[in-house]
Inverse folding.
């Protein structure tokens, strides 16, 4: 399976988190659509079927991830 570059995964995770916050505040159809698009791209990029699993998989591949507990060190 092809794996997405960590920089792309980092951008996708940041976009997802931003859109979650935006959708929660505005609830606009555009924010919901973009959130769905980013969630789908995260799933495809990580080979998962669920956005929560995709976020874990993406974060695991980011620089600073600890292999034993799937956490990410803060910078």
């Amino acid at each position: 399976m092809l794996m997405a570059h960590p920089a792309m995964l980092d951008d996708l995770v940041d976009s997802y988190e931003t859109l979650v916050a935006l959708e929660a505040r505005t609830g606009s159809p555009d924010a919901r659509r973009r959130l769905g698009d980013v969630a789908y791209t995260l799933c495809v990029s990580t080979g998962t079927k669920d956005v929560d699993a995709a976020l874990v998989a993406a974060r695991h591949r980011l620089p600073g991830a600890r292999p034993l507990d799937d956490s990410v060190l803060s910078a």
In short: The chain has one domain: 6-61.
